[in-house]
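re: that chain from earlier
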Amino acid sequence: MIPLFVAFPSWIDPYVIDGLPVRWYALMYIVAFSIAYILFRYQCRNDGVISMNASESQDFFFIAILFLLIFARLFSVLFYSDARYYITHPWMIFWPFRDGRFIGLPGMSYHGGVAGCIIGGWIYARRHGRSLLQLTDIVTAGIPLGYTFGRLGNFINAELYGRVSSLPWAMVFPTAPRFSSDEAWVREFADRIGMEYSAGELLNLPRHPSQLYEALFEGIILFLILFFIIRPIKIRKGMPHGFVFSFYLMGYGLFRFLIEYCRQPDSNIGYIISLGGSGNIAVFESFLNISEGQIFCLLMIAAGAALLAFVMWRHSVDSKEAARSKGRAKGKRA
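^ sequence. v structure.
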């Protein structure tokens, strides 16, 4: 029987150069920020929505990225790691060394990064008399394309893999935990995909390459929707600031919520809501099992819907006011 799964590419190395503590994941962060900046400057020059020179744009990106990194790390520590340890050892939150080795900052929360970016943008907007929603509209139109490379970095690191899957493109990740063939569900699954095993053997079962799912849907597809559909609608119809940002929140939240059903929750957290199946986080059992990441996604969707409702109300008020002003102007000319 031909095995129905794919082995993780053996030629992929998480380090850019052997012997140096530089990972492709860190390089992907730089690529992501660079792409977001290039698309931001493109909109500043061509859309006529905001006037910002290169120096102002760099100042804005510096403070936004700084707070993004800080809050991405803090959220990861507080919600996805051993919070008690870091509360009693706060200096370790941003300390990049463990056991005498440089390991960087393992664990960065996307939702924390969003919160940090908004806070950094708010600080910049207050200091320079800018509109926060205007800035977020321009940034979020291009962010998903950069985000694509972040998820590719996760794939190269063989981390944030998905649940066990029998799909033909499911992949065996070398860093994934193994399961004993003494368990009935493990034997049944291995038999189904044609994986050979012996009694008591620890099996590394194939999983969804959920990093690639996210790179496609939360990255490329969301970028195409925002940059080439939602952004032109805002410009053409003169929608108030926050229009693009609201669709970003809802779009990312929806895509991520659905993909989370393919992605394995953190083993130390499991499900926040577990209403179906045995509670085995390694396999999909029920749509009623909700992870912590999905809770954050629901909050994003709700926030985006509320913001869109406000934007549409604001647009309606502005349109009525413009119509009244036009009517008064015609009356005066008459």
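The chain has a mean pLDDT of 92.
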